[in-house]
What we know:
By secondary structure, this protein is an alpha/beta fold. The chain is built from 7 helices and 27 strands. The two termini are 30 Å apart.
Amino acid sequence: MTSWADARQRAYLLGSRVPRDVESMPLATSAGRTLSADVFSPTALPGYASSAMDGWVVSGSAPWRLGAAILAGDTPASTPLGDGQARPIATGGPVPQGAHGVLRSEHGVTAAGTEQGDDDLWLRANPEARSDEPRAGEHIRPIGEEAARGDLLLVAGSVLTPPRIALAAVAGLDALPVQRSPRIDVTLLGDEVIAGGLPRPGEVRDAYSPQFPGLFGLVGAEIAILQRVSDDLDSTIHAFNTGDAVLHVSTGGTGRGPADHVRAALAELGATLELDGVAMRPGHPVILARRPDGRLILCLPGNPLAAMVAFLSFGQPLIEGMLGRRLRPLGSVVLAKDVPNPSRQTRLVTFADTDAGATVTPNQGSGMLRGLADADGILIVPAGGCLAGEPVATLPLHW
């Protein structure tokens, strides 16, 4: 069987070879989408010199003769600020040419200019100000302080987070080129699986239909077809031939028992097995196959925890590759207690963060879900186990 690390990398590379579709997406609806091309600033940021403080923009030495106020949104002044002049200015207001700096509002005082022999208002620094305040350029955001025109703002493959969307907006963009979300067909195998209600002895509830739409959405994909199919060869072949999505995900039937028909169905389709079992627990009977036309089939085990661990290990990297994203890096935590692993396979263990360190959650059986429901992540425990106080790699969760 392939090692867990090699299988994860292989899934990512297979996904990255899948052809991608691009669409233009308005900023307001682009959160969570993947950028398909580098984005360069069409203008300098900011595009004009502006005040970073409420106060007075000044030129020359005090005292300063006060002029008209400058507010955010005003058109930049056409005449420079003369020596010995000042104008009240709001944060974001355009700084006129000839300005030396901005004296913040709490460090100035204004008075009628009787000592200058006129009725104008004059500005001086008060005792709270430094002796050299304001210094040259102080509290002024110069043109292009954040980015020059043509600077790279966002890199292709980036997930569009709210701050990245805001950056595109302040640069003057209204839409961005993004990867079209991969559409995935899903087949749930199992005669014992029921869609709703309390299961009778011998039956189990469908654990996947309620969670897969949200799960796939979190990793950037969407479901095209979701179907439940009986455990027989003809039905399995027919299910794999239903739909034309670039990726088909199935659950169940990956073992080698009398009711497991996935491998035979893949053989009938002429599919190449890129992964046929991975040296991991749970989830070791996972299969990843490539059809002659390049479409992929990810076959997850039937047990809920095993299926989820396998999807997070390989389905998530597969979709990240399909979207042109970088492979999400592993995390790291320090263990509160020893985590044994006497086998030669990688053990994936759900854990919770505590003040003492990472602690294994209860209910770790491959058919259980409570351990994952209470987990903050998944420990990647190598053969031989890990000791308390040691760092151990983790598989991050999207929720």
